[in-house]
Write a structure and sequence with these properties.
Blueprint: E1 2-5, H1 10-21, E2 29-32, H2 43-46, E3 56-58, E4 64-66, H3 68-77, H4 89-117, H5 123-126, H6 136-158, H7 171-185, H8 195-204, H9 208-212
Parallel strand pairs: 1-2
Antiparallel strand pairs: 1-3, 3-4
């Protein structure tokens, strides 16, 4: 297997944590994509993922799988013993519900704030992402507020259970952590009163998989 990504970026981090949780990191060849050089916009990379986003998983038979959730589903179920995406119908439903909320209300909201309300990664990379319509910056700032609201939501969840989807670490936790990493990069602070969320983050950051990623 090959993973095309950029080390340190939030979404690649999510897949790297999943791989480490499954003990598969040493079975993957990581191929660094030159985002500053615009490699993600070139025809060769777009053939792997038409959206031009990382990470992308390449299988031995030549199939390319993009989207963090899809990649995590694949690697988690390779051995028939899923630990991140749910082993029972109930667990799967809860994990995927919380996973969707983590994407929509946190990491995607941070991304919109970063791309619309800040210089982002610079004009060469951001070209095509920043619309020219009036109110673009206001939209971006609104998404920053939405991200903070998402943090408050997950703080409430974590006051009553150890992990985002219940009693066990899951794909949803990985996505929330990725969202907080992205928020830190975008300079969106976690509210000081989100004590449960901050305690969860500190605990999760001590996991070997997170340290390895």
């Amino acid at each position: 297997m090959k993973i095309y990504d950029v080390p340190g970026f939030p979404n690649p981090l999510r897949v790297r944590i999943a791989l480490a949780e499954k003990g598969l990191s040493d079975q993957v060849e990581f191929v660094k994509v030159d985002l500053p050089g615009g490699e993600h916009k070139e025809e060769a990379f777009l053939a792997k993922n038409p959206s031009g986003a990382v990470p992308v998983l390449e299988l031995g038979d030549g199939l390319f799988i993009s989207e963090c959730t899809a990649i995590t589903e694949y690697v988690d179920n390779l051995d028939g013993k899923p630990i991140l995406t749910g082993a029972t119908p109930r667990d799967k439903a809860v994990i995927h519900m919380m996973q969707k909320r983590a994407e929509t209300e946190l990491i995607d909201a941070v991304a919109d704030y970063f791309h619309y309300a800040t210089p982002g990664l610079g004009p060469k990379i951001e070209d095509g992402k920043k619309p020219t319509w009036t109110g673009r910056d206001a939209f971006g700032r609104k998404q920053g507020e939405r991200a903070v609201a998402g943090m408050r939501y997950f703080d409430k969840v974590l006051r009553h259970q150890p992990y985002v989807a219940g009693e066990a670490f899951s794909m949803a936790d990985i996505t929330v952590l990725g969202g907080l990493v992205f928020a830190g990069f975008a300079k969106i602070d976690v509210p000081e009163d989100c004590a449960a969320l901050m305690a969860w983050r500190q605990r999760v950051q001590e996991r070997p998989s997170v340290k390895a990623a």
